[in-house]
Amino acid sequence: MPENTTFFRNKLITWYLENKRELPWRKTKDPYRIWLSEIMLQQTRVEQGLPYYLKFVDAFPTVFHLAEAPQKTVLKLWQGLGYYSRARNLHAAAHYISETLKGEFPSNYKDLLNLKGVGDYTASAIASICYNEPQAVVDGNVYRVLSRVFGVETPINSTAGKKEFKQLAQQLIDAEQPGTYNQALMEFGARYCVPRNPNCEACIFNNRCEAYKKNLVSALPVKLKKRKVKKRYFNYMVVLSEGKRTLLNQRTGKGIWQQLYEFPLIESGKEVSEKELKKLEGFKLFSEEVNIEDMVLYNETSVVHKLSHQHLFARFWIVAVSEIQNTGIPFSEIQNYPVPVLLQNFISDFSVFKN
What region holds the HhH-GPD domain (predicted)? Predict the structure, then answer.
């Protein structure tokens, strides 16, 4: 166990109690609301997640309300927050809690892991905050603080690194007030021991921080190189009928944006001209479904949408048709469908779809 364990936890908790942000989920120990906040804040800044949390609590005040809601409604409220598997897992877990557990939220770390979408970090957070169970959280903020203060150079995204940091975090946790300690550590990493240009000279740990003493702050934590970013080229067919209807398809396969809606999509290996697009097999299949009267490219310059491991280059083709059969959606209803932000931005800008 590190020599300055007691100093570290006491200093950290004191800092937190004096500097913590007043956030709605810190005013309750209701596991439903803590769970909701923790899922939303995964890979999301507090400033971005807070409005979504408030909307969800208002729409679904209990786990029963969330379980009873249609998935389409849940995804629509989540729209813009990204990583949509979180919303699908949240909804599935709500069903499990509501139906199988009769609304009784799991009350310990081990049982919390049975919830879909809940891993070590989320289970540790809920167990420590709601049930005072000494389970240490380890997320990006925690990796950063611990690697710098204790000089740990093991890559955080390696198997050995994940094990080492979890063990260190568990050794450091305050068993008497684990929830407060965990929140203090995450808050300190999010607001003070930030990724770039932290104010080390004024840091509460600067006289004990190994990274500061050895001038390694910018080098820690160590992370193995990510896999190469994949480029994908999307051609969206925005169908417009004389009867003011369009087409949306639901993405059902595995991959990005599962269960969200989008315009008919033709993916190409590069940016293509209209002539090249019409030669693609996907376009031939699309043209068999609708009787195209006219087609024009909406945006000459592709909209670049960056995801964690892929960059999407999107172009929107406006396709005029005389009519659409029963599968069509009225222009006036398109805003009711959960779509990726990439499409929502287009829908908001495109005059035909504006209310």
Answer: 40-191
